[in-house]
């Protein structure tokens, strides 16, 4: 079965989110396994005021991992939300496209019916033509394509017969 | 005849919106004309110089040429006729019975 656009977008988003998660997990694993030798050396670098430079600002390895994990969670959530929105927008576009398509069909059918009704004809039988026009108009409004096709065929046949008679 | 609004992918958003609005207006005009014809009946033309067949053709042409004013006038005239027939109807039935 061919993949729909929505399915394709879904699959691409799933794949992107999956890859993103894998990358983050890898980065976290590397951070956890990294030795924190810099912290052992820190007290020796105290300045004249007795404070270690960057002691307050530099987080511990555990804090950094937690912070990174939070950021990763937020990023995944943002990506998932964006993906949901993208799918929702795509669905809206599809719905609109279907409506536009229906409107085009309606317009084509109505135009066809009006052209049939508007064609020049013999006015000797006005009631018959009135009934006929009403039938065509109702068929167009109800979307009865078969009725309209039959009428078209009959009109074409009638026109051909009239042309033959004129030639003869 | 109506100018046919062709879809052109290179058009900008405003032009596309304008074309869609124009198409919708044409669709509404055509629907109104078809409803008018679909609701018509022979008794409407008893006292009319125009016959049913000619009238249908005129309404259809008005819609195809986008003549909304003529269509509006005809719709109002037909509604007035129908209202008069409704008012007249029950009295006629009572008189008959």
Explain what you see.
Helices cover 79% and strands 0% of the residues of chain A. Chain A is mostly helical and 168 residues long. In chain A, helix 1 runs antiparallel to helix 3 and helix 3 packs antiparallel against helix 4. Chain A starts with a helix and ends with a helix. Chain B has one domain. Chain B contains 3 helices and no strands. The N terminus and C terminus of chain B are likely disordered. The longest helix of chain B is centred in the last third of the chain and has 29 residues. In chain B, helix 1 packs antiparallel against helix 2 and helix 1 packs parallel to helix 3. The interface between A and B is medium-sized, with 30 and 28 residues.
Radius of gyration of chain B (CA) equals 19 Å
Total domain modules of chain B:
1
Average pLDDT figure of chain A: 77
Largest interface: A-B, 30 and 28 residues
Briefly note the structural class of the backbone of chain B.
mainly alpha
- Shape by Cα distribution of chain B: elongated
The major pleated sheet of chain A works out as:
none
Shape of chain A: rod-shaped
Share of residues in strands of chain B? under 5%
Strand percentage of chain A: under 5%
- Give the radius of gyration of chain A: 37 Å
Oligomer: heterodimer
In short:
The complex is a heterodimer of chains A (168) and B (97). Chain A has 168 residues and is mainly alpha-helical.
Tag the structure with descriptive keywords.
heterodimer, A: 168 residues, mainly alpha, 2 domains, 0% strand, rod-shaped, B: 97 residues, 3 helices, elongated, disordered N terminus, disordered C terminus
Question: In terms of topology, how is this protein built?
Answer:
The complex is a heterodimer of chains A (168) and B (97).
Chain A: H1 5-33, H2 37-41, H3 61-118, H4 126-142, H5 145-167
Chain B: H1 13-38, H2 52-64, H3 68-96
Helix pairs in contact in B: 1-2, 1-3
